[in-house]
Structures are given as structure tokens and as C-alpha cells.
Amino acid sequence: MPIQAPQWTEFLSCPVCCNEFDATLRSPVSLACAHTVCKTCLVNLHRKQCPFDQTPITTELEKLPVNTALLQLSTMVCHGFCTTLRMCFLKYNKNAHSGTTVDGVSVMSGLL
């Protein structure tokens, strides 16, 4: 059985805690070994080394660079998802008040 490649969206979350990267506590921080983990996970490490290849972290955590490309991508995807969700809600709300039917079922019935 072939190994399935990870979805590209998996790169938008921390591989340690699986939470999505953000611009605050979960900002993606690049290590010298080229792995990226969120700032929160780095702070909580018991040993100051990469959780994947055990490369020592010799730079102060505050001075490690944020992976800005990954952060921008994560922000763009989140913004796109929120925009799509808002558009779906507005369309649903408009159809619900107009008595529109979808596949023969009144959209109003979903509001009862």
C-alpha cells in the first residue's frame, strides 16, 4: 500500500500540539534544524532541543525567527475560510427568508 502524502493544510498546524498556527501564542517558530513548531510548544519543552531530531536549541527562544511565510499562509487560509463561511451564512439566511426550496425541501424548515 503506498504511503499517502500529507495534505498541504497539515503544514498550517504545529506538528507537536496539532493546533493551528496564529500570530500570538502559537506563532510558527523556525529552529536551526529547519523544523517549525509553535511558540507555546517551544516554551513548554522540558529539554531545549528539537522534538523531532533532538538538535540542541542554543538560541534564546525570544530570538528564534518566526516563520513569516507559514504565518501569512495560515492567515490567508483562515481569512478565506471565514469569508466563505460568512457568504454561505448570508446566502442561507437570504434563502430562508424568501421561502426558497433546496431539493424540494423548504429552507425555512431548517429554522424551526
Detailed description of the structure:
With 112 residues, the chain is α+β, with helices and mostly antiparallel strands. It has one domain (8-111): Herpes Virus-1 (2-Layer Sandwich). Helices cover 33% and strands 9% of the residues. It is built from two helices and four strands. The chain has helices spanning 39-44, 68-98; strands at residues 28-30, 36-38, 101-102, 105-106. The strands form two sheets. The protein has a two-stranded antiparallel sheet. A hairpin with a 5-residue loop joins strand 1 and strand 2. It is elongated, with a radius of gyration of 21 Å. Residues 105-112 have low confidence and may be disordered. This is RING-type domain-containing protein. Residues 14-54 form the RING-type domain. Pfam families: zf-RING_5.
CATH domain topology: Herpes Virus-1
Looking at CATH, the homologous superfamily is Zinc/RING finger domain, C3HC4 (zinc finger)
Low-confidence stretches: 105-112
Kindly estimate the percentage of residues that lie in beta strands according to DSSP: 5-15%
Q: In terms of topology, how is this protein built?
A:
Elements: E1 28-30, E2 36-38, H1 39-44, H2 68-98, E3 101-102, E4 105-106
Antiparallel strand pairs: 1-2, 3-4
Concise summary:
Strands 1-2 form a two-stranded antiparallel ribbon. Strands 3-4 form a two-stranded antiparallel ribbon. The C terminus is likely disordered. It has 112 residues and is of the alpha+beta class.
